[in-house]
Structures are given as C-alpha cells and as structure tokens.
Specification:
The protein has a five-stranded antiparallel sheet with strand order 1-17-16-15-14, with no helix packed on it. Strands 2-29-28-27-26 form a five-stranded antiparallel sheet, with no helix packed on it. The protein has 360 residues and is mainly beta. The protein contains one helix and 30 strands. The radius of gyration is 19 Å and the shape is globular. The protein has a single domain (2-23, 35-356), classed as YVTN repeat-like/Quinoprotein amine dehydrogenase (Methylamine Dehydrogenase, Chain H), CATH 2.130.10.10.
Length: 360
C-alpha cells in the first residue's frame, strides 16, 4: 500500500478533519408518483444553464440561468451532485473554474474555486464534496478537490496519475476512488488513515469515464470509453479494488447508474445512441434500449424509488430533431425500469452533460 508524502498527508488531514421543458415521446405512459418531491438537475454545458425536472411528474419545471448569478456565458456547467436530503445541489463549472452550491430554491449559497472541475461526489455522512477534473481540460492538475460543503473551502489532494476523471465515494464513506483518462490506473484514498492504493490494469488504454457502486455486492463498475466495456472491481476490501470481470457494452459507454436494489446497471453508449441494461449478478447485458431522444447519451441518474432512470443526451450531431424553440436542444430520456421502455423525452438546453439527483 502506497502512502502520501508528508505535504499531501498534511493537506488531506486538514481537509478531512475539517470536513469531519417540453414533453414529446411517450406522453401516454402513466407516471408513478415519486416520494418527497425529488428533483433532477441537468447541466446544460452549451447554454450556461441547469434544467430542473420534477421526478414526481417527469416534467421540466424550471431552467436556472447561471448568468443571473454572475457566472459567465462560458461557464460550461458539467456535472451535478445533490445533498442526501435534497436540500441543496452543486454544479461544476468548467469554464469558470468553480463549483457552485445552490439551495433547492436556487439561492446561491457559495462557490469554491477549483481549476477545470469535472465529476462531483457527495460524501454520505461527512461535510465533504469531492471534485475531479474535466475531460475537456487540456492539461488539468493531477489532484482532487476536497470541498467542505458547509463553507465551500477547498483543499487540493495530489493524485499519482494524470487526468483523474471517474470519481466516487464508497457507500460506507471511508474511501474515495478515482481513475485516470490517460492510464489504466485506479487510486483509492482511505479518508481516515491517509493510505493510498493504486490498482493498475493490463491491456489497451480504457479511458475510464465514470464509476457506479453496487453496495450490497461490494462491487464497483467503471465504464471504458475506448474498450467498449464495463470493468467490474471486487471491493470486499474497499482499500484495494481488484478487477474481476469485464462486460461488453456499446461504443463509448459513458456515465453508469445502478438501481437502488442493486439488480440492474444502466449505461448510455454515446457513439451507438443506445443504453445497455446489465444484470449485475449475472454480469451480462440483458437489454439494449434505442429510440427517439437517445442522441449521444451522456449523464445518468435514477429516481430514489428506482422506478425511472434518466439519461441526458448531448445531441450535438443532430440525431434528434427538437420540436421546441431551441433548434440545438438536447434531451433527457426517461426510462421505465419495469419495462425498459422510453416513457418520455424531455427537451432541455444545449449540450446537456452530467445530471444529478439525491442518492437513494
């Protein structure tokens, strides 16, 4: 097990100690009520806006213009994370080198300065938000940002490889996992002991995009953009992830999400305009979803009760023809997990990327 150098340990110790709307396709599909009025937040990277979807009715209810809060027209919102109780949400702004925190009522609560932030992960119990680096950054820092959610102060923690992108906090909250876009390496940080483990995988470069955890099975899956597969890690010992299997999917798998019961994983295949549905226990694809609205799938989220999965679609190549006022609109496709049918297609802003809802 590798350990951080002295300066890195001090930085990590300080941080962790202190951190102790248009409806088109499928409108005749019944919508099942969601608990607690949950919201889905969609980062429209090409529009400097965030679309807000009511997951009770699966409708677009509001679009938050980031320029109204002093951010630039080139803010490039990329990914969203939500407080466990839904009381606040966070968005990474690539173009403005910041992570912004908003209340559920969209009051700006604070900002954290961090260069080219990408994926975000909320710690389940600690006052901690972890930020990785954007895939579009030319030469991003080899570090993670540890952000204290209560006051948005930041500590940078070095990463031992370039271009950290895939990011998650393990369900028990003791570890942070990140993976490289440039190398087949995964780094795990123990938040209590500062121990660091680096797992190296053989074979062609994967370009790891994002993780999805399966807590009841002690498994962690990560999408490989270039290898067209999900790699399964055994995390029975979460300090030392061990690759145990691969699952072929479509071309350019992007953000995966696991249903709350741990039974199914959904991942959009950007180059195939499709979604692969994986039986987690069997480690095989059991369905491939295609249809109107799936146009360069990117982000993913699941409603906390597990009934619907949401997939954002960039639609930068014009595969989908918008029917509303924005000729460059992307979409959020709503998938009924009981049937794997597309229940709705919601038009949002230009180039929607990462999306987020509170974790079940």
């Amino acid at each position: 097990m590798r350990r951080l150098d002295g300066l890195s340990i001090i930085l990590l110790f300080i941080a962790v100690g202190a951190l102790a709307g248009c409806d088109f396709a499928g409108d005749d599909t019944p919508v099942v009520d969601a608990p607690q009025g949950d919201r889905l937040y969609v980062a429209n990277q090409g529009a400097a806006t965030v679309a807000v979807i009511d997951m009770t009715t699966n409708t677009l209810v509001e679009t938050v213009a980031l320029t109204d809060y002093g951010f630039s027209e080139n803010a490039k919102p990329h990914h969203v994370a939500v407080e466990p109780d839904g009381s606040a949400w966070y968005v990474s702004l690539i173009g403005d080198d910041a992570v912004a925190k908003f209340s559920r009522a969209h009051e700006l609560l604070g900002t954290a300065a961090i260069e080219t932030p990408g994926m975000l992960a909320v710690h389940p119990t600690r006052d901690l938000l972890v930020a990785g680096r954007s895939m579009s950054a030319v030469n991003p820092p080899s570090s993670l940002g540890l952000i204290r959610r209560s006051d948005m102060t930041v500590t940078e923690v070095p990463v031992v490889f370039p271009r950290p992108h895939a990011l998650t906090v393990d369900p028990a909250g003791a570890y942070v996992h990140t993976a490289s876009l440039a190398e087949n390496r995964v780094m795990t940080v123990d938040l209590d002991t500062e121990d660091v483990t680096v797992t190296r995988l053989d074979g062609p470069t994967e370009v790891f995009v994002q993780f999805a955890a399966v807590p009841d099975r002690a498994e962690l899956l990560v999408s490989g953009q270039l290898t067209r597969q999900m790699t399964v890690f055994d995390v029975s010992d979460p300090a030392a992830p061990s690759p145990v299997a691969t699952i072929p999917v479509g071309r350019q798998p992007w953000h995966p999400v696991v249903t709350p019961d741990g039974a199914r994983l959904y991942v959009g295949n950007k180059e195939d305009d499709s979604v692969s549905v994986i039986d987690v226990a069997a480690r095989e694809v059991v369905a491939t979803i295609t249809g109107v609205g799936l146009a360069e799938p990117h982000g993913s989220a699941v409603r906390p009760d597990g009934r619907y999965v949401y997939i954002s679609n960039n639609n930068q190549d014009g595969t989908y023809t918008p029917q509303g006022d924005n000729p460059e609109a992307g979409t959020v496709v709503v998938i009924d997990t009981e049937t794997n049918a597309i229940a709705k297609v919601l038009e949002v802003g230009t180039n929607p990327t990462g999306i987020g809802a509170r974790q079940p």
